[in-house]
Design a protein that fits this description.
The protein is an alpha+beta fold. The protein has one domain. The protein has four helices and six strands. The strands form three sheets. A two-stranded antiparallel ribbon has the order 1-2. It has a two-stranded antiparallel ribbon with strand order 3-4. The protein has a two-stranded antiparallel ribbon with strand order 5-6. β5 and β6 form a beta hairpin. The longest helix is centred in the C-terminal third of the chain and has 12 residues. The two termini are 17 Å apart. The mean pLDDT is 96. Bound molecules: zinc ion.
Length: 123
């Protein structure tokens, strides 16, 4: 929680402004051999955690390559994403895959983040 600055490490919504519970995510799920240690744990809001589940990658096209999801322990959020008017926009294919799988830009999420941004609390 402290390492994450009390923010979701996937959508960066601050815990203190969220209506949702926050969870500890295994970035690489135990069933994939990920360790149960700090190097493999991320702090996340429940909507991000529910969507991510045990996934570590996804497809952007059915006939395209498997793309690894954003890893908050080994990658810099701002190298893969940017924000505009509450939207989370991809800067890389990793960002695009993560936005898709975690469904980060639903109308409700974008509106919530826009209000936080206008108040100076996001990203
Ligand atoms: Zn989140």
């Amino acid at each position: 929680m402290e390492r994450a600055g009390h923010r979701c490490e996937y959508c960066r919504v601050p815990e203190y402004l969220s209506a949702f519970d926050y969870h500890i995510d295994h970035i690489i799920g135990l069933q994939h051999g990920g360790p149960n240690s700090l190097i493999n744990l991320a702090y996340g809001c429940s909507p991000c955690n529910w969507k991510k589940g045990p996934n570590i990658s996804t497809l952007l096209d059915l006939d395209g390559p498997l793309i690894a999801l954003f890893n908050p322990r080994t990658q810099d959020w701002f190298a893969h994403f940017e924000t505009k008017d509450g939207l989370i926009l991809p800067l890389t294919v990793t960002g695009k895959a993560t936005i898709k799988l975690l469904d980060l830009n639903t109308t409700a999420k974008v509106e919530e983040r826009l209000q936080m941004a206008l108040a100076g609390f996001y990203p």
